[in-house]
Amino acid sequence: MRSPVSRAFVALLVMVAACVAQIIAPAVARAAEVNLYSTREPGLLQPLLDSFTAKTGIKVNTVFLNTGLAERVAAEGASSPADVLMVVDIGNLVELVKRGVTQPIRSATLDEAIPASLRDPDGNWVALSLRARAIFVSKERVSDTAMTYEDLADPRWRGKVCTRGGQHPYNTALFAAMIAKHGEPATAEYLKALKANLARRPAGGDRDVARDIFAGICDAGLSNTYYAGLMLSGAGGPEQKRWGEAVRVILPTFKNGKATGAQGTGTHVNVSGAAVARHAPHRAEALRLLEFLATPEAQRIYAEANFEYPARAGVALQPIVAGFGTLEIDPTPLATIAAKREEASLLVDRLGFDR
Ligand SMILES: [Fe+2]
After folding, report:
1. Domains in the chain, CATH or no CATH each
2. Among positive and negative, which fits the CA dihedral 340, 346, 348, 350?
């Protein structure tokens, strides 16, 4: 029979054990998981995250957010469980930095995998895939196979150009890149001439450019390449497949890019990318996840899922994407483009481009 003293001792032992378990448990969890906040579709990422877990033993807890990712992490403050923040569009990447929810990372692996122009100079974010801003032209009515963005403003295209709104982030970034290359006054002239060439009010989405070319409403327009991939693959249904088949994808360059930019020219790309959260409880694991996503195999799968381009050079392209031709990325650093976004947006507004 146990004495009250030994019973009290056992109770004390149980209490101590419980405390130790509480102290150890989070430490163990810290070593084996990473929390990802993402605006990218779950289906796009899950196979890669599973493969990361299989390789490293690190479990990925994912929070998918359609909007308001930056606001949420900011609101969570120092107690935020977020480790990796994954968003689309350079505007959203710089928004994370502006809100102070990222931390600079240094990784020789990432530096080697992703070109410097596609990374934040201060190490706050890194691009994971590229979204090339293309020109779609009618296969039936247009014979051109090479164009500059500036060509769309040529009087030859009067009443024949379609685009989504000038304030959409895809166009904001393109116009910002143009300001970075040619300056604000020249970009204002460009936008005026482009507006004069429009077949309809800037509205809808990029797919609608192909739809309207198919319908004969316009002959050329701006669209990201992955929409052509999505349409041609049949993923959007037979109607969209016909829209996709009606257009030729041209990977444009900027006019006189060499003379004015002194950096050469190429196709404007926007990105999807990621950052490590400022208060990341699993910082090391967060970095491992980013480094994994930059490996050639992960880059191929990540890019293929949405018909995008890998951010890493030398990775095989999805066959439909490869069919668009060789992508020469415009060398203007994304950070430079991001810095001109506000100016581009104000310009679109001032010129009444969307009216
Ligand atoms: Fe899109």
Report:
1. 7-129+270-317 (3.40.190.10), 131-267+325-351 (3.40.190.10)
2. negative
- Which of 288, 271, 347 lies closest to 115, judged by CA? 271
Instruction: Name the residue type at position 258.
Output: K
Cα 339 from chain centroid (whole Å): 16
Average of per-residue pLDDT across 38-59: 93
**Strand pairing partners for 132?**
269
**For 252-256, what is the mean pLDDT?**
91
- Going from the Cα of 122 to the center of ligand 1, the distance in angstroms, rounded, reads 27
Q: What is the pLDDT of residue 11?
A: 54
- Look at 2-16, 204-218, 325-339 and tell me which has the smallest mean pLDDT: 2-16
* Contact between residue 202 and residue 353 where contact means Cβ atoms under 8 Å apart: yes
**68 Cα to the center of ligand 1, angstroms:** 17
Is 245 a residue whose pLDDT tops 60? yes
CA contacts within 13 A on the Cβ side of 3: 3
Residue 273 CA to ligand 1 centre (angstroms) = 14
**Residue at token pair 């994912």:** 62
Task: Please give the distance, rounded to the nearest whole angstrom, from the Cα atom of residue 30 to the centre of ligand 1.
Answer: 35
Q: 79: buried, middle or exposed (CB in 10 Å: 19+, 13-18, 0-12)? A: exposed
- What stretch of H or E contains 277? strand 269-277
Q: If you measure from the C-alpha of residue 11 to the centroid of ligand 1, how many angstroms do you get, rounded to a whole number?
A: 60
pTM for the model stands at 0.89
